[in-house]
UniProtKB/TrEMBL annotation:
Family designation: Belongs to the flavin-dependent halogenase family. Bacterial tryptophan halogenase subfamily.
Family matches, as SUPFAM superfamilies: FAD/NAD(P)-binding domain
Pfam families: FAD_binding_3
Domain FAD-binding: residue ranges: 5-318
Designated name of the protein: Tryptophan 7-halogenase
Coiled coil (UniProt feature): none
Length: 370
């Protein structure tokens, strides 16, 4: 049996759920979200930049977000481009502070809001096939207990993350600009105090990141070349701990506290984008459209902006709203280009170790005009 729906969103992360909520706010379209995970995944060190509350307010979530216990971040401290710490703060930013996220809580709130506005959120549901039937797209889903259904959506939103499951099956090609790895430790803060600021420090191997998280936890990560991961983890992470002890900012901050740490773990960090983010009856949002380097701190905020633009684009295409004064693909391209320029400027500012492999590989490259 084939069921019709107006919009199928593949992926239930922030980009997909925000798109679904935005569509229901603008239209009466039927929206289905297919999410493979049954519960949100724990993520570490994710931050919402100043101004993100405006995006959440458009989704009807700003007040709930403030009440959910996410940790306000007053700014950052960094050792980058030289030996002296530099500071940035959000205290006078009219858009408000940044926020260290409890990612599980954040995504749970988005799921609840989506269901509240009438989105059919199907967790534990994997997208397994796509095809054409009588000139219409069909998508096969496998739900809990192996139950299979087929949907015939008018629109498909690919929010499946860096794999871009649907877009690649429509011929879109993913271009990767960089591949990194974050070797990280999550720890409970047992005694002492740790700054609410985000701490970033460049070293010859890569760059360190440390921040306090909701629930008195601290994440510490070294972002390095993927080839360095095995060496950093060898012997119980001996080299990782040695390099942390040698830092001039993060090491002393952590020396003031007592932690109960978990084992080191690795997370891939990819900078990439699709060669096209729209097609006939589909578009891609969030990481499915383009993945960011976390050094810029704009990943989730940009995903929420993608979602808002996607909802407006689909509403207009289905006759449920006025035509936006821009093209969706241009907006996504502009955000990624802004990220690229910011990233290149940051890496170019750190030239203390030009012969080290990590930094030599990230000398900004010219980008051909299109």
């Amino acid at each position: 049996m084939v069921d019709a729906c107006d919009v199928l969103v593949i992926g239930g992360g922030p980009a997909g759920l925000a798109t679904a909520i935005g569509l229901r706010a603008r239209t009466d379209l039927t929206v289905v979200v297919a999410e493979d995970r049954t519960s949100p995944t724990e993520r570490f060190g994710e931050t919402l930049t100043p101004g993100a509350l405006a995006a959440l307010d458009r989704l009807g979530l700003a007040d709930a977000f403030r009440a959910d216990g996410h940790l306000s971040c007053p700014g950052g401290i960094s050792v980058w481009g030289g030996p002296r710490p530099g500071h940035s703060d959000h205290l006078l930013d009219p858009r408000g502070p940044a926020w260290h996220l409890d990612r599980r809580r954040f995504e749970t709130r988005l799921r609840a809001r989506a269901a509240q506005v009438g989105v059919d959120v199907r967790t534990g549901t994997r997208v397994v096939t796509t095809g054409q039937e009588s000139g219409r797209t069909t998508v096969g889903l496998r739900g809990p207990a192996g139950r299979s259904t087929t949907l015939r959506p008018t629109w498909v939103v690919d929010a499946s993350g860096g794999g871009s499951w649907f877009a690649r099956r429509q011929g879109a090609v993913r271009h990767t600009r960089d591949r990194l790895v974050a070797v990280l430790r999550l720890a409970d803060l047992e005694a002492g105090t740790f700054t609410a600021q985000t701490a970033v420090e460049a070293t010859p191997t890569g760059w360190w990141y440390g921040s306090k998280l909701p629930g008195s936890r601290i994440v510490t990560a070294l972002v390095a070349d993927r080839g360095a991961a095995a060496d950093l983890l060898r012997g119980g992470g001996r080299r990782w701990h040695e390099e942390l002890a040698a830092t001039t900012l993060l090491g002393p901050l952590l020396a003031r506290v007592r932690l109960r740490g978990e084992p080191l773990r690795c997370r891939p960090v990819t900078v990439s984008r699709l060669d096209r983010v729209t097609g006939s009856g589909w578009l891609a949002v969030g990481d499915a459209a383009s993945e960011r380097d976390p050094i810029t701190g704009c990943g989730i905020h940009d995903a929420l902006l993608d979602a808002a633009d996607a909802a407006w684009t689909i509403a207009a295409a289905t006759g449920a709203g006025g035509q936006p004064p821009w093209r969706y693909e241009d907006r996504v391209e502009a955000r990624f280009e802004n990220h690229r320029q910011t990233r290149d400027a940051l890496y170019a500012a750190e030239r203390r170790w030009p012969a080290e492999a990590f930094w030599a590989a990230r000398v900004p490259r010219p980008v051909a005009a299109t």
